[in-house]
Amino acid sequence: MTEQENRSSSNLLILCLEHAWEIDQPNRAAAFPPELLKTWKQEQLNEFDAIGGQGWILNSEMANEALIASEHIITIADSVLGLGGAGGNSRAAGGGGGGAIGTNARGGGGGKGGDTHYYGDPIDLSLFDYKLPNAEHPGAGGGGAGSENENAVGGEGGGGGDRFVAKFSMSELESDNGPLSVKLVVGRGGASQRYPGEHAENGEDSEIHFITPDGKTVRSIIAKGGKRGSPGFALPPTAREANSTDIESGLNVCAIVIAEVIHPTNSLLNVLGGAGEFWKYPALPADVCWPTAVIFSLGYLPLGLQLTFYIVVDDPNGYEIFRLPLNVTKGTERLVANLTYSIAVQFRANIAGVWCLRILSGDFEFARLPVEIRIGDA
């Protein structure tokens, strides 16, 4: 069934809790085939039609009252609620989408499964049915992150990696100059999110190269690694991203700074050890924490306007590894309406080089701060 068919009224059979539970037991599926359940449903409908107007007539006002009441009777207390999607549960499978809870919340979609490629004669795939030592499936996509709040959106599940199944004859492993050597590169598995706003890491590609005695590569097989799940997020229902009209009204990011300590108080910004050209770590990978301050100038924007910005970090290769929303509200009609936001930007740095901290909204980049990460004595 499609999701729509599964959730439609034509697929609804109303039962008491006891018998609903009994029918749903997997080991009893044969005792309750779909044809029998459809017969029961039709008998229910026939009975309802037979008694006619003896029941209550439900009007729109009563239905609306029932809907409103149902929103407030669900309570979860003293429980741990996991909203994150699960990683793929078979080789090259896509990850599950993240859940979301709250008014107008929407769960994330599942990730696309990876492609399977075959080379040579058919192989019994059960010979390769294994898991990694940590019980994860190789090449599976990561789960999307969960989210909780009004208008929350769960993260998308990551796509599964490619899978190659190959069988070579001995003659294929020979060259004119002698037997081929095989170079195997096993890609590192993806890593999960560690800090709010940080993206999970993609799995690396795995490679097999066939090399002649004189060092020439005559054949390569590359299986793409599984993809990370995306983070979930929740935005205020009245917020929107910036547009060109806002910029014409004076919207701007006056400053962005990272420091050892940042403490905004009243109209002052206290900074200790800020505006450095580089951050040095004894070794990589390392956990990075950048206390960050962003100063917004709201110009002549209307009072009460809510705008959503994103603070983003790109690694030296240009890949986005961190994204966190900043919701800015103009709450005063002062002649100078500047707002300072402080936030801890935390992520895992794997490589040295020039990283980039950016402030984005809509189609615009409002600020950019390059920061070098070096390896050396702290």
In short:
Residues 141-232 form the Glycine-rich domain. By secondary structure, the chain is mainly beta. It has helices at residues 3-7, 17-23, 34-51, 60-71, 244-248; strands spanning 100-101, 116-119, 147-148, 152-153, 163-166, 174-175, 178-179, 181-185, 206-211, 217-223, 233-234, 252-265, 268-274, 278-281, 286-297, 306-314, 320-329, 338-349, 353-361, 364-375.
Q: In percent, how helical is the residue content?
A: 10-25%
Shape: flat
Q: Which blocks of ≥5 consecutive residues have pLDDT under 50?
A: none
The profile of the biggest β sheet is: 5 strands, mixed
Order of helices and strands: HHHHEEEEEEEEEEEHEEEEEEEEE
Radius of gyration: 28 Å
User: How far apart are the first and last residues' alpha carbons, in Å?
Assistant: 59 Å
**Annotation, overall tally of beta strands:** 20
| Corresponding CATH architecture of the largest domain | Sandwich
What is the number of helical segments per DSSP (H or I, 4+ residues)? Answer: 5
Question: Which percent band covers the strand fraction?
Answer: 25-35%
Spatial strand arrangement across the major sheet:
14-20-19-16-17
What is the CATH topology descriptor of the largest domain?
Immunoglobulin-like
CATH class of the largest domain: Mainly Beta
